[in-house]
Amino acid sequence: MKIVRNAFVSFLAGVGIGALIEAFISIGMGMNIVGVPEFVDTIAPGYAKIIQCFCYGGFGLVSYLCGEFFGNRKGAFYLMQGLHFFILLVYFVFVGFYLKWFTDPTSVLYSVLSFAAIYFIIWIAIYFKEKRMVEKMNRQLK
User: Fold this and answer.
1) Any transmembrane segments, and where (predicted)?
2) In whole angstroms, what is the distance from residue 78 CA to residue 82 CA?
3) CB-based burial of residue 2 (10 Å sphere; 0-12 exposed, 13-18 middle, 19+ buried)?
4) In sequence order, what are the residues at sequence separation of 6 or more whose Cβ sits closer than 8 angstroms to the Cβ of residue 59?
5) Half-sphere exposure of 118 (CA within 13 A, CB side)
6) Residues 86-99: tens digit of each pLDDT
7) What is the C-alpha separation between 25 and 22, in angstroms, rounded?
8) Is residue 42 packed enough to be buried (19+ CB in 10 Å), middle (13-18) or exposed (0-12)?
9) What tens digit of pLDDT does each residue of 45-77 get?
10) Spatial contact of 80 and 88, defined as CB atoms under 8 Å apart
11) pLDDT at residue number 118
12) Is the separation of the CB atoms in 93 and 127 below 8 Å?
């Protein structure tokens, strides 16, 4: 039951992060966006946002499942992180094509670079959070 709860929480985190990124893009563009018009126009009214939220939640779910699968494996830390990044990148490209984020090869490149930057910002934040927790535990053990 714990795995289902953690998967659900990760899914919701993906929805939240995706919605925030979409909101920041809207602010940057100076307009409210619900999605790419080429995608939104192909979906019945009201469903585009729901589909997008499920896709965003997928990021959290895929990330969690990668952690469950790779977290128990013995191997180089950076190799496991590299696999995690690659799997999320593949999911990102799949979602990008499905939601019609990409208009040409240049937009794919810029989107992948943006994804990598966001991934590493989140990774660094988690790294420092975990590092502080380990330092706190070490202090308590002394």
Assistant:
1) 7-27, 47-70, 82-102, 108-128
2) 6
3) exposed
4) 14, 17, 18, 88, 91, 92, 95
5) 18
6) 999 999 999 999 99
7) 5
8) exposed
9) 778 889 999 999 999 999 999 888 876 666 677
10) no
11) 86
12) no
